Amino acid sequence: MATIAVTMGDPAGIGPEIVLRALQSATVMERCTPVVVGHAETLRRCAEAIGLAGVEIATIADPGEAAARVGRVDVLSVAVPGLESIQPGVVQAACGQAADAFVRRACALGLAGAVDAITTAPIHKEALRAAGVPHIGHTEMLAEYLGAPEPLTLFLTGKMRIFFLSRHLSLRQAIDYVTRERVLAMLRQVHQAMVAFGFPAPRIAVAALNPHASDGGLFGTEEAEHLIPAVAAARAEGIDAVGPIGADSVFHQALEGQHDCVLSLYHDQGHIAAKTRDFFGTVTATLALPVLRTSVDHGTAFDIAWQGKASPVSMEAAILAAVDLLAARAT
Description:
By secondary structure, the chain is an alpha/beta fold. Helices cover 40% and strands 18% of the residues. It has two domains: 3-150 and 290-330, Isopropylmalate Dehydrogenase (3-Layer(aba) Sandwich), CATH 3.40.718; 159-272, Isopropylmalate Dehydrogenase, CATH 3.40.718.10.
């Protein structure tokens, strides 16, 4: 049974709560051995605040000690100065430092072969900045700590799989980022990733950048100059790519099963489609890393932190997605 390192995320956010609640799922415990990489005392404080004081929070020294039992949460506790006095729902440097330390420890466990995958709870960019962490998000952190400079982001929701050409860029920068060379290179990566996960001939749709794929150049030239040539070049290499297809249609087509996955050209294009379809159930997977990572696709929700209001649905889905992806890659 796979061992999954579950990072606690920003301690002042909903991460501790959704981790605690997700690990009360019998399905999760039946399908994997989750090990929380976080701070045991913070989890105890949160458990008491949200009415889960009866849950056993066990500090372990090695993932091999984990029990995988409902009612018990196994924690590899990481000591970070200042966590004993944090306030829920507030940006704090100690929490940014802790979130970074949890991810570092999980990556080290993955590289050592002590865990099979990593599932992350949400972190807060301002807290990272306050702590002096030079990264703006998980993807950038994982790239450094796992030594993989070109991670591949995948969203999973229902039958829809969405890859991203760019991630954290302004819209202006994201538009300029769309070039024939980058799109072709990404199509090669996407094809390779989909084959690894059990799709021998994946059907890849490329979302258009402009409305109606520019209507033959009536508004915008990116389709003619970059996207159409990239798709043609990919097809010449034996990759089953189609498009560009208008973004107002391509995601619906994917949900209907016409495409195995969609290449979104920028952050919001794919995020809006996925989160509108299922805000809580959407899962992020980061591929092209030495260790598979999955994550919830929502933020720290400081406004409801430690109040017993946060839904664990996405956290459970992220853990189970790691199990499914590991199994698919093994076949």
